[in-house]
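Lecture notes, structural biology module. Today: joint structure prediction for complexes of two components.
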Amino acid sequence: MAISTSTPPDGAPGTAAPDGTGAGAERRSTLLHRLDVRGAPYAFVAPFFIVFAAFSFYPLVYTSWISLHRVELSTLNVMEWVGFDNYTALWEDDRFWNALLNTFTIGVLSTVPQLLMALGLAHLLNYQLRGSTFFRVAALTPYATSVGAAALVFTMLFERDFGMINWMLSLVGIDNIDFENNKWAAQTAISTIVIWRWTGYNALLYLAAMQAIPRDRYEAAAIDGASRWQQFLKVTVPGIRSTIVFTIVLSTIGATQLFGEPLIFGQGPNGITGGADNQYQTLGLLLYEEGWKNYQMGRAATVAWAMFLLLIVLFVVQRLVKRVLARRA
Amino acid sequence: MTTDSIPVETADARPGTVQKKTRKNAPPGGRNRQLFRHPGAGRQHHAGPVAYILLGIAALFSLFPLYWTMVAASTDNTRVTQTPPPFLPGPHLLENLGKAWQDAALGKAMLNSLIVAGVIALSTVLFATLAGFAFAKLRFKGRNILLMLVIGTMMVPPQLGVVPLFMMMTELGWGQQLPAVIFPTLVSAVGVFFMRQYLSEALPDELVEAGRVDGAHSLRIFWSIVLPIARAPMAVLFMITFVHAWNDFFWPFIVLDMSNPTVPVALTQLSAGYVRDQSLIMAGALLGTLPLLAMFIVFGRQIVGGIMQGAVKG
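The predicted structure, tokenised, for the full assembly:
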């Protein structure tokens, strides 16, 4: 930014005005020009990196340092070195393993159906449609609903005594399900909120990728006698592979961070602990409970760091799976 | 008017328009052209009734919870808690909206969210366009590495740094203050990438060169050449960022409190047992969503287009 202000005033925006101004001024203006060409790009990308470094990168790294200390919420500037005590405590804490498992099961329950449904929806939207704009916008509308509002609505739809879902189940002869206290029912309900909010968004990503597939690939497949289903498997899915990987990565990250849905689904006091028996407490909730309910910021940092490790493990696994699959193919 | 003359399969950019034309010009037997087509040409297939039914179900799945929010918000607590649940709106909508507005202190929350989302969206658009322009059209050392870094930052969930971030904000005296929510999200990697993709295609190199020959410095080129060209994607990025910022929950929930909340934070108060009236809870949820819904009704098509555009190469 400083570069732009140091360039000469725009008195002669036309040519560099070599006549009259003299050789010294000319040299100065070429120097400024070169400085501008060299420096401006860095100035333009700098804001992004400065903000990221200050508010994302630095906190992430500092998290690991805090996790080696005992820090209380009321006295944030008092840090007592405890080495790896927080980590051993976490390792021996049943709530951690419970939260890890819940994060994993809710993650699978929400991500797998979500992406499969998105794939199907994208395929449908890829037809020549009347009212295609309506269907696309309708699919994306849940994305405009905040976690807060969505979770409130679904909490009510899943209500045990008067909820709409239980009423519909009763029509087909299924007894009322206690979606709050039954572990798997609660996790399914929470996953439904996630699925509802993100399926349309992912479908649009897939749709965009599908539209970029050259049509002659389909024609070639058709000439080879491939049925529509075969075309979908052999042309469409490989054609949007990179987008599928992208959405898997994004959804996985989202799943490991899950927080708002279970918090609000728990309706208040039970929200932070993820139900009366921690039956749907995720790692995100555990982090919050340690830090802001038990006032142990060091412990909270340890949970955050464990979440980061989990992500890294997941990506290594994903890489390995990809490599094994590639070798087989 | 033979089947041959109808450009059935040449439809490229806008299948919709071509379809309309052929419909108009086609003879009554024009539907038969389906028979002459190759058995399967990808996206050119017209949707059959099954596809419409499935899409209808998908749309219902998407929209019904929102519709029902409105229904529940317009009845009263006794009606909501009866079985079968209500399917049609009742007479109490405005009354409930008014009460929820008071009980959840939504007025202040709305204003806060408007400020937070507005500032974040503005700064994201500005910085993303600047950086996107540099990455797309300016040559500099380390450009590719820096771009890879930008993309890499998308993989780091900001939630992981909340503990130090919280300590930092307390130190700065920003606890419970809006700047604590605004500053960490002033930029977005997705935004930078989005603008880069757009500008590398839409902005001809010659225009930038011409500006240079005319002696314009980089910021001036940005101002008078890039900005006018990038107006449409900037608007889309603004809306998408606005939606994200408005709905952001984890960090605002941690750093703000009920005396100074954003909308999603204020909504948790509705679930936390302060309000037991179910229709009031739904009225609050509806209020908190309305601004974004309004935006979707007006600009839905553009937002959809923007998300798809950002995705193709993403």
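Point to remember: Residues 1-20 of chain A have pLDDT under 50 and may be disordered.
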